[in-house]
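Posting for a labmate who doesn't have an account.
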Amino acid sequence: MTLNELKTGSSGIITAVGGDGPLRCRLLDMGLIPHTRVTLQKVAPMGDPIEIRVRGYELTLRVEEAQKIEVKEAAEV
């Protein structure tokens, strides 16, 4: 499943980060690296962009970027 497929309020663990060249590097630089927990916080009214919580801060991504990030659903602790 990709990051944009999570339900609002649910968490996932990043398994892979796709994309080409500069986009992939930018995503990794923002802390979106494998084995990191992310939580989908909000989705804009028209569906794009989405806001996620990662490493203690909120990050807004375009759906197109979120589709390049593979996640598995995380069990709530």
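Reply:
Got it, the structure tokens are right above this. Helices lie at 21-29, 63-66.
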